[in-house]
Amino acid sequence: MGAIKARPTEGLCYDPSVARYWSKQGLDAEIERVFDICHGCRLCFKLCPSFPKLFDAVDAHDGDVRALGEEKIDEVVEACFQCKLCYPKCPYTADDGHEFDIDFPALMQRYTAQKARRDGIGLREKLLGNPGLVGKLTAPVAPLANWANTKKPVRVLLERSVGIHRDKLLPEFHRETFEKWAARRDTTGGSTRGTTRGTTGGTTDGTTGGTTRGTTRGTTDGTTDGTTDGTTDGTTGGTTRGTTGGTTGGTTRGTTGGTSGGTTGGIAGASGTTLGTSGTATGGTSGEGRTSVVNGSASAAGGAAHTSSGTREVVLFHTCFVNYNNPQLGKDAVTVLERSGIKVLSPDQGCCGMPALDGGDIEFARRQARRNVVRLKPYVDRGLVVLAINPTCSLTLKREYAGLVGEDMREDAERLAASTRDLLEYIHELQREGLLDEDFASSPGELAYHLPCHLKAQNIGFRSRDVMKRIPGARVRVVDGCCGHDGTWAMKTEHFEASMRQGAAVFEQMSAGGIMATDCPLAAIQFEQATGVKPVHPVQVLARAYRKDGFPSRKGGK
Asked: Which of 9, 30, 334, 503 has a CA-to-CA distance to 213 between 20 and 30 Å?
């Protein structure tokens, strides 16, 4: 038997929309090739348990990768966190122009997807892979759900029936989601949806845009949301909203829906100044109502679009976690952006799809991705930046969508990727251009800042650290290491204890003093599990620093 060649085999494929992706023979050839290269390289030996398991297994067979059985390969794949950190570390990637074209996380994902298609997707993976559905079902009974999650008998039952460890700290749910808060704020704030969409827009967008969004987007969103949301929010937000809502929802939302709701508007939908002043100028003719009413000129400030009155706008991809589990984080993000004169739009959106990818449910993840590309396309077309609060979500929009959605939507997904920023990445852009409001009234003092793996994988630098350092008196200590949560991995019965061991060194560093901060909401849960203290997001540090009493534990807030 000859040597294993390092160059790609005919089985190389990272695109699930291509039939070759699902070939087991092609996958086996790539597993053999990549495992052999990784075994010889060993550069990633300390990143996650997957690599030590791989090296030990191959060493046990005298360096012969071909001697590994299915069971050993399963162990290697199961130990992969999908932290993605081996990709920027790897010298053999296509991004580096190397002919080997290695993407270890994508290979692990392909293996998981084939296994899921072959063996089926279990209840646990379906639940953990659809946080939007879990949140939607749980939010109305949030107090009861939160109470139940603290009760041992309930947790034992959950562990036995689903496979979520009985001791794993679970995120809290909130009855008022971020989306509800946004809509209420928009209404009580006298914005487009509240004032005009409740009056003129009340007939037009309240009916059509309420029938369209309620019926079409309610019906379609669940079914074809790619087509109809493309049709509905794009074309019906250009047909209904562009015909009924378009003469009126183009004129009304352009004129009335504009001026009134425009200047004061809140954040839900595409309201506020967007549908305001600029809406008057172009809303009647555009027929898009919700999106085309804004002049799409890009500003120097992070590429945000301007309305005719000079207001800058961005789209907030608030994420499932913020919507259902931590609405306050979304509110604080809006506060910080608005302090710097940024108009925040929060259009309909779904889960980014990464949790489903974790469980190998490629088809569900693809549907989520396609829906989001369609929903966000009108805003991208206008030149708006899309800000994701969760690093996993920003990474997914940037790196996963183009290879996930299929050839027919790839160009739109690539344009979305180019328009996507992590929240603090964008705030850092504002700061560098002198546009960030730095009128801070209090200081956090010492901060222990954990840099999440999905931010490191984006190669954007330590943006959260750099922005927090702008607060006078802030002393930021960066903690760089794996907390062990790793998506849904730490929740699973068989991995919980290993996850706590994995993060032990980082737990100690984080608790060494100061306010704990991290961009990753799941890492925050892991730190709270280990230390009893709940970390905050860097944008919340900024939001508190604007208040005199932002850090009451510090004397005088200073």
From this structure: 334
